[in-house]
Amino acid sequence: MKRLALFLIIPMWVAAQSGSITWQKHVIADTLPGIKKVAIGNIDKDSNRARDIAVTMNPESDRAEDSTKANVIWFANDGAQNFTEFVIDFKLTGARGIALGDLTGDGYPDLAVGSRADSIPLVIYKNSGAPETLGWTRQEIGGPAPDNYEVKIVDLDRDGWLDVVDGFGDDAEYGAANSGTVQDSIRFLKNTGRGDTLILRNKLVAQVPSPAAFDVGWLDSDTLYDVAMVDWLDYFSSTAQTGEDLTWWAQQTDTSFVQQQQIIDYYGGNDVQIVDMNGDKAPDIVAVGYKSQTLDWWRNDGSGNFTDRVIIDQNLIRPRHVQVSDLDGDGDMDIALTVDNANTVYWYENDGQQNFTRYTIDDAFTYAYFICANDLDGDGDLDLVGTAQDAGELAWWENNSAQTQDVAAGSPDTLDFYGTKLRIKYASPYPGGLTSVFLNYGPTPDSTAFEAGLQKVTSSAFYTIVSHAATYEASLIVRYDSIPAWQNLSAKESDLRFCFWNDTAGNGGEWQILQPGSQVIDTAKNVITISQVTQALHKYSLFTLGVSSGPSAIERSAPAVASVNDFKLFSFPNPFNGQANIEFMLPGGSHPVRLEIFNARGQKVRTLFSGNLFGGRHRFNWKGQNERGVNVSSGWYFYRLFVAGKRQSGKMLLVR
User: What pLDDT sits at residue 565?
Assistant: First the structure.
């Protein structure tokens, strides 16, 4: 269905400075001929949680395969942003689209890579679990998929297994592939859940002219993933033609797709992203018109109609790739853009009312090709990673928005961040080191995933707090009245808790109360004090406010306990199916506590808690999983509580 599009040009200012963000450039490598796109994640799953980078390159240009030149590589991050290069494949000429995700279900991210070349299919590189030493297993999927510029890994059918979506077409420049014709398409490769065997079944999204780019997201009122796409018909013409449009397709309940709207024709776009730009809960579309030389935003009217075009910028000399993210952490969406013929990387700062100011990050990035955002250094703010095709350069721009204080060894004063919203007091002796804090006003990640002891966590506003000290014991003093979103929790003050994201708990992580039993609320000062924090302030940490279902934190008077040996330890339900609660009581004062689960062979299955707790009643939840988050089998399990050198045990029966 085709609709007429209304459009307007919003106010946009150009400035030489970098706005509210100071960017610091770091070159990772500058000898990568024909570098194209990147995918970022913890590829080697090392304990430092560091983000690694996978890269596609085309050193052969449009010539024949040269097996001495790498086409797919990855860079391992040591946690201090020192990168080591590893080659994945020398034989994928024309490598372009790339995506990262765990397709085999083994916990390690795999790669899906497309190529521009005629006869090369989509290739999956299965992660061995030790990619630095054991490398990757190459698996070709289906027949030729030329001009495969865009690849996504997403659970399109929501069955719990990540699928692959890619787009390809048969460019006339190369002729017919394998003496046949490849139908220009966007396809959905359904993961059948066979683990390492990896069987992907081909399903059609749409037959379209050569897709230049697409994105997957929710565009209408249902909960099914939809697809928005820009395409090209003529790679040699700089003028947009009819059919070089922006279109979107709605997914149906049987995972078929129906075209909904040709949003604009004569566009010649090169990138598109689905994102809620104005906070109305209706995802919009941001696109780059390579041939029309514009950066555009189409507003969603709430029903999947896109008739209101906003031209954010125009007269750009071949804009190529766009990244829409909250770069300054103020709760609204900003934009980063590469403009290849201008050798420039821009960012557009959103003032909260969708008025954008353009700033230049780099104007000597030769043939600026690709840009994406990720927290590469783990301090909470989003950095930018980009490729300069003709310079063979992979670089990242460090976002210095996080507040930092470098403290000398000894007995430091209390550190204040964001005024006095967050205060940190280190116990003496402190070994010295940098502390960084970033307050992000955007949506709280995974706000619906929380432990049984919580009723909810706030929907927006969260901290990343990082201590670079070798060891530390800290008290955090958190004001809960200074952040508007936190005041909308509608909870009693006595139930408020400062929470952290435990990425090893639950099914892929969950919010948990930080230091249960060690939080005290001062309702006169509107602060929560969390004492004896010794491990949680690491890179990529996340903290927010939650509401507890447990006892008040205003009064910590301990229930009567006969002695330090009487912990009234028990579990319920018992037997249990899925999860069990383990409860105990401690006498007054502070105690070193460790709670562990063992199987019938005496092998430790999981540590539920290790730290200090105040006197009182405490409850911990076990979901029947080991340290890796894998469900354990039915049978008897033993829980052991260690308190100040004393031990008590109990047993429980898991029945699945």
Answer: 57
